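for the recovery benchmark. tokens below, seq after
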């Protein structure tokens, strides 16, 4: 039973006998497997945790941590417990075999090994492993489908509950409204009632059955013919039904009701239903006889309008405000006495948007209503955005006024704009990063090939063309970097910087320009201070802003101290500081003995335009600029202050471990050649592998190449003693660069590695890798860059 190429996986061999490892390694590699090796149990567990091999061949008898203990550790670890383990041993004792199987091993192979048997058993267990994986994946998909179905059912239950709640609310509103709701189906002549039928008329629902004829029986005889005529007219003209008439209650008394009905048409255009509501207006008619009662009713209705947070106003047809509720007072700032009688267009609109307002008026005339968004102003001149609904109010068929309901959506619109802006910038940054990486991968072999051709084509014309090509490839690389920095919100000339030089420049400026009453102190280590990666001009601006603020805080003199030190951020510190991440930083402190900052404003000092200085003496942009620049450098700022004792601003910038090329070496015309050292080059781009291998072999190096992290680990395991340096691309499919580097460092902590990145933000990558790499080389790189850095790493202890 042979496995297909896709089913063959990675096998980890664990044996303390080198000859056993070598023979078994070669045998399995010849049969198409990727093979990792380990000579002891502890190292085997670490490699298994990182690479997750598909099967482990484990020797039982090993010094220190034996095979049984190694198996036990693997099975206790949730990451490695599912990896099949086959014991290899010369012991044929059944008790040992039972012990191994009880620990979780899947098979036992006794020495001396019959390799066909070994291959057969490996194939069987890998096939079982692959089948188990497929079954697990199918189970996960099934569980996900069940989960999604349960979520859908849950949402349906929630929607059903919400619908029931809304139905209950609707019924409660109808009951509270004191109205009778009716729905008359003309095809069946059935009328369904809702609301306060029994409270208003005294009849139960069964007593109201009988359709239109039953309703006509309750109408006062003097009003019945008039009602029938009005019904026929409305059914013919399809107008809104509106009529006042008298109805007999169950106790024999008559009340006056107002019937408002609305016509609904079927698909053929014929009237199919009339739906509406009936209001008892007996008391209202009685109230019309006395002005006092009428005024009281109006005040009660106005009070109801005042309970809403929306601005409700009524204006006549020439825009004069007739009604102004409490919501309008809160939204616009004018009280009712100030607004009533004013022209709404002059009061609420700054730019007099007559075109839009004229269009609204036309829509009202044509359709009776309008809704949309309007830009308005408050009493204080603040611009706001409202969702506005306009309704034309008619009296006996004549337009009398306009009812306007406005809801403030200013904050909502601002948040939408911020979200869209942030989403757009995030998408641009992601797109630019991907483009930059791919373009740099394309430019790298081009740049190296140009220099290969320079040696092959010595004639003057060819050299001229190749110079033009090289210049334009470098220009394209610079454009890629500019696009990437712009997308990340920071445009600048980022490079490796020495902090002591930055502080030295600031020192000379402040000593010449600041008051002699201010004593300048500098505390910077003479050596071992880490380098940073940033824009010198921008960081110069940061330090100058902080020094100027310190000077302003000491109007009568004091001490200004600028210091720098290496600073390590651990996980506890990172949890307490939202902008900090675990890693190495350089902390630059600007400390003064001035007036200090009050606690109540210390959280606001980085806000744009916030300042404690008098008008004309400060814009409030200094510290916000400082924070923006430091964030663009992936750093953070802390403030330590006490009123009367001074302030300290701590600027923390991530370090870079890239090594500067020695100036003397860089100036030499002859490139440093190798002396037969073996270099492992790891990159998923075939063109980069080919050109890099050609250049290195041309300059007296030996080269082996790997197209992914797994191949790199297997090759390094096989040729560890011969390999001098590993050149690793940071971004590869499958196992990426950082993961590959971590595995290689577990195999050999002293390994020499050069990282290669197609992105401009190398300082971010360095923070992730820590001390794992000697140099991080940016794509596109020239053969000169490669050879000089390789020579430097080889000769660095």
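predicted aa per position
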């Amino acid at each position: 039973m042979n496995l297909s190429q896709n089913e063959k996986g990675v096998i980890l061999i664990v044996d303390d006998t080198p000859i056993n490892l070598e023979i078994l390694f070669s045998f399995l590699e010849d049969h198409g497997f990727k093979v990792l090796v380990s000579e002891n149990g502890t190292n085997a567990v670490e490699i298994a945790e990182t690479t997750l091999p598909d099967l482990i061949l484990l020797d039982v008898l090993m010094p220190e941590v034996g095979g049984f203990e190694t198996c036990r550790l693997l099975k206790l670890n949730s990451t490695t417990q599912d990896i099949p383990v086959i014991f290899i041993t010369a012991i044929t004792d059944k008790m040992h075999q039972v012990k191994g199987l009880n620990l979780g091993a899947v098979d036992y192979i006794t020495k001396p090994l019959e390799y066909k048997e070994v291959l057969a058993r490996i194939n069987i267990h890998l096939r079982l492993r692959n089948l188990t994986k497929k079954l697990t994946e199918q189970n996960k998909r099934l569980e996900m489908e069940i989960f999604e179905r349960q979520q859908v059912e849950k949402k349906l239950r929630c929607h059903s509950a919400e619908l029931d709640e809304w139905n209950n609310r609707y019924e409660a509103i109808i009951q509270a409204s004191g109205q009778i709701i009716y729905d008359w189906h003309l095809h069946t002549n059935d009328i369904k009632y809702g609301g306060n039928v029994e409270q208003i008329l005294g009849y139960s629902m069964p007593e109201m059955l009988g359709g239109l004829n039953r309703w006509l029986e309750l109408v006062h005889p003097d009003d019945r013919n008039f009602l029938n005529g009005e019904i026929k007219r409305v059914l013919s003209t399809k107008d809104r039904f509106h009529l006042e008439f008298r109805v007999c209650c169950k106790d024999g008394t008559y009340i006056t009701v107002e019937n408002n009905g609305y016509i609904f048409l079927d698909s053929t255009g014929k009237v199919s239903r009339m739906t509406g509501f009936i209001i008892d207006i007996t008391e209202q008619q009685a109230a019309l006889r006395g002005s006092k009662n009428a005024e009281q009713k109006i005040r009660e209705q106005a009070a109801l309008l005042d309970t809403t947070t929306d601005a409700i106003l009524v204006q006549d047809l020439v825009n004069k405000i007739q009604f102004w509720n409490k919501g309008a007072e809160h939204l616009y700032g004018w009280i009712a006495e100030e607004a009533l009688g004013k022209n709404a267009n002059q009061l609420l609109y700054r730019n007099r948007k007559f075109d839009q307002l004229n269009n609204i008026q036309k829509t009202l005339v044509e359709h009776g209503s309008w809704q949309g968004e309007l830009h308005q102003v408050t009493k204080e001149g603040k611009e706001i955005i409202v969702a506005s609904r306009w309704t034309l109010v008619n009296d006996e068929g004549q337009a009398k006024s306009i009812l306007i309901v406005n809801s403030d959506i200013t904050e909502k619109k601002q948040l939408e704009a911020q979200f869209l802006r942030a989403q757009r910038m995030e998408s641009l940054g992601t797109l630019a990063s991907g483009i930059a990486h791919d373009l740099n991968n394309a430019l790298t072999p081009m740049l190296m090939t140009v220099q290969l051709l320079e040696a092959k084509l010595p004639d003057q014309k060819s050299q001229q063309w190749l110079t033009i090509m090289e210049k334009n490839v470098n220009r394209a690389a610079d454009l890629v970097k500019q696009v990437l920095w712009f997308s990340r919100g920071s445009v600048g000339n980022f490079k490796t910087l020495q902090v002591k030089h930055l502080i030295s420049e600031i020192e000379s400026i402040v000593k010449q320009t600041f008051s002699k009453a201010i004593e300048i102190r500098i505390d910077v280590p003479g050596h071992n201070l880490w380098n940073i990666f940033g824009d010198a001009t921008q960081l110069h601006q940061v330090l100058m802003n902080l020094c100027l603020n310190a000077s302003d805080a000491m109007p009568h003199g004091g001490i200004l101290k600028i210091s720098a030190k290496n600073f390590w951020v651990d996980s506890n510190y990172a949890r307490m500081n939202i902008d900090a991440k675990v890693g190495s930083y350089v902390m630059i402190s600007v400390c003064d003995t001035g007036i200090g900052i009050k606690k109540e404003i210390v959280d606001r000092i980085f806000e744009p335009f916030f300042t404690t200085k008098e008008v004309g003496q400060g814009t409030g942009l200094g510290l916000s600029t400082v924070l923006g620049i430091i964030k663009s450098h992936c750093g953070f700022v802390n403030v330590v202050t006490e009123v009367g004792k001074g302030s300290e601003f701590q600027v923390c910038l991530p370090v870079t471990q890239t090594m500067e090329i020695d100036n003397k070496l860089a100036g030499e015309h002859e490139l440093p050649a190798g002396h037969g050292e073996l270099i492992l080059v790891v990159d998923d781009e075939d063109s980069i592998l080919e050109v890099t291998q050609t250049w290195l072999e041309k300059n007296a190096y030996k080269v082996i190449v790997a197209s992914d992290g797994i191949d790199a680990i297997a090759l390094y395991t096989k040729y560890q003693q011969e390999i001098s340096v590993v050149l690793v691309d940071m971004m590869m499919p499958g196992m990426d660069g950082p993961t590959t580097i971590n595995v290689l460092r577990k195999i050999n902590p002293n390994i020499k590695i050069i990282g290669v990145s197609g992105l401009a933000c190398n300082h971010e990558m360095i923070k992730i890798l820590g001390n794992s790499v000697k140099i991080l080389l940016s794509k596109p790189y020239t053969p000169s860059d490669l050879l000089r850095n390789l020579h430097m790493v080889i000769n660095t202890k």
